[in-house]
Amino acid sequence: MSGQEDRSCTMRDRNILFGITGSIAAFKAAGWVHALTKEEARVTVVMTRAATRFVSSLTFGALSGNRVYTDMFGEGDNETMAHITLPRMSDLVLIAPATAQTIARLAQGMADDLLCTAVLAGTAPMIICPAMNSNMLAHPATRRNLNTLKELGYVVIEPDTGLLACGDEGAGRLPEWDSVREVLLGLFIDDDLAGRKVLITAGPTREPVDPARYLSNRSSGKMGYALARTAKRRGADVVLISGPVHLEPPPGVELVQVLTARDMKKAVDKYAAESSVIVKAAAVADFRPTHAGVRKIKKAQAELKLELTPNPDILTELGRDRRADQILVGFAAESNDHEAEGRRKLKDKRVDLMVVNDIMGEKTGFDADTNQVTLISNDGVEQLALMSKEQTANCIWDRVAAML
Protein backbone atom coordinates (compact mmCIF):
# COMPACT_ATOMS: atom_id res chain seq x y z
CA MET A 1 0.00 0.00 0.00
CA SER A 2 1.49 3.28 -1.04
CA GLY A 3 1.63 6.30 1.25
CA GLN A 4 -0.66 8.22 -1.09
CA GLU A 5 -3.33 5.53 -1.01
CA ASP A 6 -3.11 5.26 2.77
CA ARG A 7 -3.51 9.02 3.25
CA SER A 8 -6.60 9.11 1.05
CA CYS A 9 -8.48 7.36 3.87
CA THR A 10 -7.32 9.45 6.81
CA MET A 11 -6.43 12.97 7.86
CA ARG A 12 -3.11 11.78 9.31
CA ASP A 13 -0.24 14.27 8.85
CA ARG A 14 -2.48 16.86 7.18
CA ASN A 15 -1.85 20.47 8.21
CA ILE A 16 -5.23 22.05 8.90
CA LEU A 17 -5.74 25.75 9.55
CA PHE A 18 -9.06 25.80 11.42
CA GLY A 19 -10.90 29.13 11.55
CA ILE A 20 -13.62 29.56 14.18
CA THR A 21 -16.01 32.52 14.21
CA GLY A 22 -18.59 33.89 16.64
CA SER A 23 -21.44 31.40 16.65
CA ILE A 24 -22.98 29.14 19.28
CA ALA A 25 -22.00 26.31 16.91
CA ALA A 26 -18.39 26.89 17.95
CA PHE A 27 -18.89 24.24 20.61
CA LYS A 28 -19.39 21.66 17.82
CA ALA A 29 -16.14 22.82 16.24
CA ALA A 30 -14.38 21.69 19.42
CA GLY A 31 -15.50 18.15 18.64
CA TRP A 32 -14.18 18.50 15.09
CA VAL A 33 -10.77 19.61 16.31
CA HIS A 34 -10.70 16.65 18.68
CA ALA A 35 -11.63 14.27 15.84
CA LEU A 36 -8.88 15.65 13.62
CA THR A 37 -6.22 15.33 16.28
CA LYS A 38 -7.34 11.76 16.99
CA GLU A 39 -6.59 11.05 13.32
CA GLU A 40 -3.15 12.62 13.86
CA ALA A 41 -3.81 15.72 11.80
CA ARG A 42 -1.83 18.83 12.77
CA VAL A 43 -4.43 21.46 13.63
CA THR A 44 -3.79 25.15 14.16
CA VAL A 45 -6.80 27.17 15.33
CA VAL A 46 -7.45 30.81 14.49
CA MET A 47 -10.36 32.37 16.38
CA THR A 48 -12.10 35.66 15.76
CA ARG A 49 -12.60 37.88 18.78
CA ALA A 50 -16.33 37.06 18.77
CA ALA A 51 -15.58 33.32 18.76
CA THR A 52 -13.74 33.61 22.07
CA ARG A 53 -16.99 34.85 23.65
CA PHE A 54 -18.53 31.42 23.01
CA VAL A 55 -15.64 29.00 23.65
CA SER A 56 -12.34 29.79 25.35
CA SER A 57 -9.15 29.67 23.30
CA LEU A 58 -7.75 27.49 26.09
CA THR A 59 -10.23 24.77 25.08
CA PHE A 60 -8.98 24.69 21.50
CA GLY A 61 -5.38 24.86 22.63
CA ALA A 62 -5.88 21.81 24.81
CA LEU A 63 -7.71 19.89 22.06
CA SER A 64 -5.28 20.73 19.26
CA GLY A 65 -2.07 20.63 21.28
CA ASN A 66 -1.01 23.81 19.49
CA ARG A 67 -1.05 27.52 20.10
CA VAL A 68 -4.35 29.23 19.29
CA TYR A 69 -4.16 32.52 17.37
CA THR A 70 -6.68 35.26 18.10
CA ASP A 71 -5.06 38.61 17.31
CA MET A 72 -3.54 40.08 14.19
CA PHE A 73 -1.03 42.02 16.25
CA GLY A 74 -0.48 39.70 19.20
CA GLU A 75 2.78 39.46 21.05
CA GLY A 76 5.21 36.64 20.45
CA ASP A 77 7.93 35.48 18.11
CA ASN A 78 6.95 35.61 14.43
CA GLU A 79 3.34 36.41 15.29
CA THR A 80 3.42 39.63 13.27
CA MET A 81 3.72 37.42 10.15
CA ALA A 82 1.16 34.81 11.25
CA HIS A 83 -1.24 35.80 8.46
CA ILE A 84 1.47 34.71 5.97
CA THR A 85 3.11 31.75 7.72
CA LEU A 86 -0.04 30.00 8.91
CA PRO A 87 -1.76 29.57 5.51
CA ARG A 88 1.58 28.84 3.83
CA MET A 89 2.08 25.80 6.11
CA SER A 90 -1.48 24.49 5.64
CA ASP A 91 -2.87 21.81 3.35
CA LEU A 92 -6.33 23.35 3.67
CA VAL A 93 -8.22 26.08 5.51
CA LEU A 94 -11.48 25.10 7.20
CA ILE A 95 -13.77 27.79 8.60
CA ALA A 96 -16.47 26.33 10.84
CA PRO A 97 -18.74 27.74 11.98
CA ALA A 98 -18.74 30.58 9.43
CA THR A 99 -21.08 33.40 10.46
CA ALA A 100 -22.91 35.74 8.10
CA GLN A 101 -20.50 38.47 9.17
CA THR A 102 -17.38 36.48 8.27
CA ILE A 103 -18.91 35.27 5.02
CA ALA A 104 -19.68 38.86 4.02
CA ARG A 105 -16.13 40.00 4.82
CA LEU A 106 -14.59 37.11 2.89
CA ALA A 107 -16.85 37.82 -0.10
CA GLN A 108 -15.65 41.43 -0.11
CA GLY A 109 -12.00 40.45 0.27
CA MET A 110 -11.60 42.29 3.54
CA ALA A 111 -8.48 41.82 5.65
CA ASP A 112 -9.44 43.37 8.96
CA ASP A 113 -8.58 40.46 11.25
CA LEU A 114 -6.12 37.57 11.35
CA LEU A 115 -8.50 34.95 9.94
CA CYS A 116 -9.64 36.94 6.90
CA THR A 117 -6.10 38.11 6.18
CA ALA A 118 -4.80 34.55 6.34
CA VAL A 119 -7.51 33.48 3.89
CA LEU A 120 -6.48 36.21 1.44
CA ALA A 121 -2.83 35.24 1.77
CA GLY A 122 -3.46 31.51 1.41
CA THR A 123 -3.44 29.33 -1.69
CA ALA A 124 -4.62 26.06 -0.11
CA PRO A 125 -8.23 24.88 -0.59
CA MET A 126 -10.73 26.92 1.44
CA ILE A 127 -13.75 25.15 2.98
CA ILE A 128 -16.58 27.24 4.43
CA CYS A 129 -19.25 25.77 6.73
CA PRO A 130 -21.98 28.38 7.31
CA ALA A 131 -23.98 28.23 10.56
CA MET A 132 -26.61 30.81 11.48
CA ASN A 133 -30.32 31.51 11.89
CA SER A 134 -32.48 30.33 8.97
CA ASN A 135 -33.63 33.82 8.04
CA MET A 136 -30.05 35.10 8.03
CA LEU A 137 -29.04 32.19 5.80
CA ALA A 138 -31.93 32.80 3.40
CA HIS A 139 -31.35 36.57 3.19
CA PRO A 140 -30.48 37.63 -0.38
CA ALA A 141 -27.28 39.30 0.84
CA THR A 142 -26.04 36.09 2.47
CA ARG A 143 -26.97 33.99 -0.58
CA ARG A 144 -25.17 36.50 -2.82
CA ASN A 145 -22.08 36.37 -0.63
CA LEU A 146 -22.05 32.57 -0.60
CA ASN A 147 -22.38 32.50 -4.39
CA THR A 148 -19.48 34.94 -4.62
CA LEU A 149 -17.33 32.64 -2.50
CA LYS A 150 -18.21 29.68 -4.73
CA GLU A 151 -17.27 31.69 -7.81
CA LEU A 152 -13.93 32.49 -6.16
CA GLY A 153 -13.26 28.78 -5.75
CA TYR A 154 -14.21 28.30 -2.11
CA VAL A 155 -15.87 25.01 -1.19
CA VAL A 156 -19.13 25.85 0.60
CA ILE A 157 -20.75 23.03 2.57
CA GLU A 158 -24.42 23.84 2.97
CA PRO A 159 -25.73 23.65 6.55
CA ASP A 160 -28.10 21.00 7.84
CA THR A 161 -31.77 21.52 8.62
CA GLY A 162 -33.23 21.05 12.09
CA LEU A 163 -33.82 22.69 15.44
CA LEU A 164 -31.55 25.71 15.88
CA ALA A 165 -30.11 27.09 19.11
CA CYS A 166 -32.46 30.08 18.88
CA GLY A 167 -35.46 27.74 18.92
CA ASP A 168 -36.35 28.15 15.24
CA GLU A 169 -36.64 25.16 12.94
CA GLY A 170 -34.96 25.26 9.54
CA ALA A 171 -31.66 25.36 7.67
CA GLY A 172 -28.61 26.75 9.43
CA ARG A 173 -27.22 23.96 11.61
CA LEU A 174 -23.54 23.13 11.33
CA PRO A 175 -23.31 19.82 9.42
CA GLU A 176 -22.23 16.60 11.10
CA TRP A 177 -18.49 15.96 11.11
CA ASP A 178 -18.69 12.78 9.05
CA SER A 179 -20.12 14.70 6.09
CA VAL A 180 -17.48 17.41 6.31
CA ARG A 181 -14.67 14.88 6.75
CA GLU A 182 -15.68 13.21 3.49
CA VAL A 183 -15.43 16.54 1.66
CA LEU A 184 -11.98 17.16 3.11
CA LEU A 185 -10.71 13.71 2.17
CA GLY A 186 -12.12 14.17 -1.33
CA LEU A 187 -9.79 17.15 -1.78
CA PHE A 188 -6.77 14.90 -1.27
CA ILE A 189 -7.56 12.27 -3.88
CA ASP A 190 -7.99 12.35 -7.65
CA ASP A 191 -11.60 12.65 -8.80
CA ASP A 192 -11.04 9.97 -11.44
CA LEU A 193 -14.64 8.76 -11.09
CA ALA A 194 -16.15 12.21 -11.60
CA GLY A 195 -19.23 12.12 -13.80
CA ARG A 196 -19.57 8.34 -13.49
CA LYS A 197 -22.71 6.68 -12.20
CA VAL A 198 -21.68 3.84 -9.90
CA LEU A 199 -24.02 1.15 -8.60
CA ILE A 200 -22.91 -0.87 -5.57
CA THR A 201 -24.66 -3.65 -3.69
CA ALA A 202 -23.77 -4.46 -0.09
CA GLY A 203 -24.72 -6.55 2.91
CA PRO A 204 -26.74 -9.76 3.23
CA THR A 205 -30.26 -10.60 2.16
CA ARG A 206 -32.89 -12.24 4.35
CA GLU A 207 -35.18 -14.97 3.04
CA PRO A 208 -38.24 -15.42 5.28
CA VAL A 209 -39.16 -18.84 6.60
CA ASP A 210 -42.13 -17.37 8.44
CA PRO A 211 -42.86 -13.96 10.05
CA ALA A 212 -40.37 -14.70 12.86
CA ARG A 213 -37.52 -16.55 11.10
CA TYR A 214 -35.35 -16.12 8.04
CA LEU A 215 -32.33 -17.54 6.21
CA SER A 216 -29.35 -15.21 5.89
CA ASN A 217 -25.56 -15.03 6.19
CA ARG A 218 -22.91 -13.25 8.24
CA SER A 219 -22.17 -10.37 5.85
CA SER A 220 -21.79 -7.03 7.69
CA GLY A 221 -21.88 -4.83 4.57
CA LYS A 222 -18.66 -3.05 5.61
CA MET A 223 -16.83 -3.72 2.33
CA GLY A 224 -19.70 -2.48 0.17
CA TYR A 225 -20.17 0.63 2.31
CA ALA A 226 -16.42 1.33 2.11
CA LEU A 227 -16.64 1.07 -1.68
CA ALA A 228 -19.56 3.52 -1.74
CA ARG A 229 -17.82 5.99 0.57
CA THR A 230 -14.56 6.01 -1.37
CA ALA A 231 -16.27 6.16 -4.77
CA LYS A 232 -18.14 9.27 -3.64
CA ARG A 233 -14.84 10.83 -2.52
CA ARG A 234 -13.47 10.21 -6.00
CA GLY A 235 -16.33 12.12 -7.60
CA ALA A 236 -18.77 9.36 -8.52
CA ASP A 237 -22.55 9.61 -8.39
CA VAL A 238 -23.20 6.59 -6.18
CA VAL A 239 -26.27 4.45 -5.62
CA LEU A 240 -25.87 1.93 -2.80
CA ILE A 241 -28.35 -0.95 -2.68
CA SER A 242 -28.06 -2.46 0.77
CA GLY A 243 -29.46 -5.43 2.58
CA PRO A 244 -30.14 -5.12 6.34
CA VAL A 245 -26.98 -3.91 8.12
CA HIS A 246 -26.07 -1.87 11.20
CA LEU A 247 -24.09 0.84 9.38
CA GLU A 248 -24.63 4.54 8.82
CA PRO A 249 -25.05 5.37 5.12
CA PRO A 250 -22.05 7.19 3.61
CA PRO A 251 -22.68 10.94 3.19
CA GLY A 252 -23.83 12.01 -0.25
CA VAL A 253 -24.71 8.49 -1.39
CA GLU A 254 -28.20 7.47 -2.52
CA LEU A 255 -29.18 4.54 -0.31
CA VAL A 256 -31.76 1.96 -1.43
CA GLN A 257 -32.65 -0.51 1.32
CA VAL A 258 -33.86 -3.99 0.42
CA LEU A 259 -34.55 -7.21 2.29
CA THR A 260 -34.66 -10.28 0.05
CA ALA A 261 -32.66 -11.39 -2.99
CA ARG A 262 -35.63 -10.71 -5.22
CA ASP A 263 -35.94 -7.20 -3.73
CA MET A 264 -32.26 -6.63 -4.51
CA LYS A 265 -32.64 -7.87 -8.08
CA LYS A 266 -35.57 -5.52 -8.66
CA ALA A 267 -33.53 -2.57 -7.35
CA VAL A 268 -30.46 -3.53 -9.40
CA ASP A 269 -32.58 -3.82 -12.54
CA LYS A 270 -33.89 -0.29 -11.93
CA TYR A 271 -30.43 1.34 -11.80
CA ALA A 272 -28.18 -0.96 -13.86
CA ALA A 273 -28.86 0.47 -17.31
CA GLU A 274 -27.78 4.00 -16.34
CA SER A 275 -24.63 2.91 -14.46
CA SER A 276 -21.09 3.12 -15.83
CA VAL A 277 -19.76 0.80 -13.14
CA ILE A 278 -21.58 -1.94 -11.22
CA VAL A 279 -19.98 -3.55 -8.18
CA LYS A 280 -21.75 -6.57 -6.70
CA ALA A 281 -20.33 -6.71 -3.18
CA ALA A 282 -23.51 -7.99 -1.52
CA ALA A 283 -23.69 -11.52 -0.13
CA VAL A 284 -26.98 -12.53 -1.74
CA ALA A 285 -28.65 -15.68 -0.40
CA ASP A 286 -28.36 -18.47 -2.96
CA PHE A 287 -31.64 -20.08 -1.87
CA ARG A 288 -34.96 -19.17 -0.31
CA PRO A 289 -37.66 -21.33 1.29
CA THR A 290 -40.03 -22.61 -1.38
CA HIS A 291 -43.02 -22.00 0.86
CA ALA A 292 -42.72 -19.27 3.49
CA GLY A 293 -45.17 -19.54 6.35
CA VAL A 294 -47.79 -16.80 6.54
CA ARG A 295 -47.93 -17.33 10.31
CA LYS A 296 -45.23 -18.34 12.74
CA ILE A 297 -44.56 -22.08 12.47
CA LYS A 298 -45.14 -23.73 15.84
CA LYS A 299 -42.41 -26.03 17.06
CA ALA A 300 -44.80 -28.93 17.55
CA GLN A 301 -46.13 -28.57 13.99
CA ALA A 302 -42.81 -28.00 12.22
CA GLU A 303 -41.46 -30.41 9.66
CA LEU A 304 -37.76 -31.26 9.92
CA LYS A 305 -37.22 -30.65 6.22
CA LEU A 306 -37.05 -27.19 4.64
CA GLU A 307 -37.59 -27.17 0.90
CA LEU A 308 -35.44 -24.55 -0.88
CA THR A 309 -35.66 -22.78 -4.23
CA PRO A 310 -32.68 -21.10 -5.98
CA ASN A 311 -32.67 -17.32 -5.96
CA PRO A 312 -31.86 -15.40 -9.14
CA ASP A 313 -28.11 -15.04 -9.77
CA ILE A 314 -27.97 -11.27 -10.09
CA LEU A 315 -24.30 -11.10 -11.11
CA THR A 316 -24.71 -13.73 -13.83
CA GLU A 317 -27.69 -11.89 -15.27
CA LEU A 318 -25.79 -8.59 -15.21
CA GLY A 319 -22.87 -10.20 -17.04
CA ARG A 320 -25.23 -11.60 -19.67
CA ASP A 321 -27.15 -8.36 -20.26
CA ARG A 322 -24.45 -5.72 -19.72
CA ARG A 323 -23.56 -3.02 -22.20
CA ALA A 324 -20.15 -3.17 -23.84
CA ASP A 325 -19.08 0.07 -22.17
CA GLN A 326 -20.01 -0.98 -18.63
CA ILE A 327 -17.47 -2.16 -16.05
CA LEU A 328 -18.71 -5.07 -13.93
CA VAL A 329 -16.99 -6.09 -10.68
CA GLY A 330 -17.93 -9.20 -8.74
CA PHE A 331 -17.07 -10.41 -5.25
CA ALA A 332 -16.44 -14.00 -4.20
CA ALA A 333 -16.25 -14.97 -0.53
CA GLU A 334 -14.30 -18.23 -0.47
CA SER A 335 -13.00 -20.59 2.19
CA ASN A 336 -10.56 -22.48 -0.09
CA ASP A 337 -9.20 -22.63 -3.66
CA HIS A 338 -9.47 -18.85 -3.84
CA GLU A 339 -7.68 -18.24 -7.13
CA ALA A 340 -9.25 -21.18 -8.94
CA GLU A 341 -12.74 -20.19 -7.82
CA GLY A 342 -12.08 -16.58 -8.72
CA ARG A 343 -10.92 -17.47 -12.22
CA ARG A 344 -13.94 -19.71 -12.76
CA LYS A 345 -16.39 -17.03 -11.67
CA LEU A 346 -14.59 -14.36 -13.73
CA LYS A 347 -15.28 -16.44 -16.82
CA ASP A 348 -18.68 -17.88 -15.96
CA LYS A 349 -20.20 -14.58 -14.83
CA ARG A 350 -18.54 -12.47 -17.57
CA VAL A 351 -17.15 -9.81 -15.27
CA ASP A 352 -14.16 -7.51 -15.73
CA LEU A 353 -12.78 -7.92 -12.23
CA MET A 354 -13.38 -10.56 -9.57
CA VAL A 355 -12.48 -9.69 -5.98
CA VAL A 356 -11.88 -12.80 -3.86
CA ASN A 357 -11.63 -12.63 -0.10
CA ASP A 358 -10.90 -15.34 2.46
CA ILE A 359 -13.83 -15.73 4.85
CA MET A 360 -11.80 -18.00 7.13
CA GLY A 361 -9.23 -15.39 8.17
CA GLU A 362 -9.59 -13.72 11.55
CA LYS A 363 -8.82 -10.30 10.02
CA THR A 364 -10.42 -10.92 6.62
CA GLY A 365 -13.65 -12.74 7.45
CA PHE A 366 -17.12 -11.49 8.16
CA ASP A 367 -17.52 -8.28 10.17
CA ALA A 368 -13.78 -7.50 10.22
CA ASP A 369 -12.59 -3.93 9.63
CA THR A 370 -9.66 -5.14 7.52
CA ASN A 371 -9.48 -7.26 4.41
CA GLN A 372 -6.97 -9.04 2.22
CA VAL A 373 -8.29 -9.73 -1.24
CA THR A 374 -7.10 -11.19 -4.52
CA LEU A 375 -7.92 -9.21 -7.66
CA ILE A 376 -8.46 -11.43 -10.70
CA SER A 377 -8.97 -10.12 -14.21
CA ASN A 378 -8.10 -11.18 -17.73
CA ASP A 379 -4.83 -9.27 -17.25
CA GLY A 380 -3.70 -11.44 -14.35
CA VAL A 381 -3.85 -11.95 -10.60
CA GLU A 382 -2.86 -9.47 -7.89
CA GLN A 383 -2.74 -10.32 -4.19
CA LEU A 384 -3.25 -7.22 -2.07
CA ALA A 385 -1.78 -6.78 1.39
CA LEU A 386 -3.85 -6.82 4.56
CA MET A 387 -5.31 -3.33 4.93
CA SER A 388 -8.42 -1.48 6.00
CA LYS A 389 -11.54 -1.98 3.93
CA GLU A 390 -11.44 1.65 2.78
CA GLN A 391 -7.86 1.17 1.58
CA THR A 392 -8.92 -2.05 -0.15
CA ALA A 393 -11.78 -0.17 -1.78
CA ASN A 394 -9.39 2.46 -3.13
CA CYS A 395 -7.19 -0.24 -4.66
CA ILE A 396 -10.26 -1.65 -6.39
CA TRP A 397 -11.22 1.80 -7.68
CA ASP A 398 -7.67 2.28 -8.97
CA ARG A 399 -8.17 -0.81 -11.14
CA VAL A 400 -11.63 0.27 -12.25
CA ALA A 401 -10.41 3.79 -13.12
CA ALA A 402 -7.66 2.28 -15.27
CA MET A 403 -10.27 0.14 -17.08
CA LEU A 404 -12.47 3.17 -17.67
Care to describe what's here?
- With 404 residues, the chain is of the alpha/beta class.
- Helices cover 33% and strands 24% of the residues.
- It contains 14 helices and 21 strands.
- The strands form six sheets. An eight-stranded mixed β-sheet has the order 12-11-8-13-16-17-19-20, sandwiched between helices. Strands 2-1-3-4-5 form a five-stranded parallel β-sheet, with helices on both faces. The chain has a two-stranded antiparallel sheet with strand order 6-7.
- Helix 13 (338-348) links the parallel strand 16 and strand 17.
- The two termini are 22 Å apart.
- The model is unreliable at 1-5 (pLDDT under 50).
E-strand count? 21
Question: What would CATH call the architecture of the largest domain?
Answer: 3-Layer(aba) Sandwich
The percentage of residues in β strands lies in 15-25%
Low-confidence parts, pLDDT < 50 over ≥5 residues?
Answer: 1-5
CATH topology tier name of the largest domain: Rossmann fold
* Spatial gap, N to C terminus: 22 Å
- For the record, the count of structural domains works out to 2
Question: Which term fits the overall shape?
Answer: elongated
Counted by DSSP, the helix tally is 14
The CATH superfamily of the largest domain bears the name CoaB-like
Q: Over the alpha carbons, how many angstroms does the gyration radius reach? A: 25 Å
Give me the secondary-structure category.
alpha/beta
Oligomer: single chain
* Main sheet specs: 8 strands, mixed
Overall pLDDT:
91
Order of strands across the main sheet: 12-11-8-13-16-17-19-20
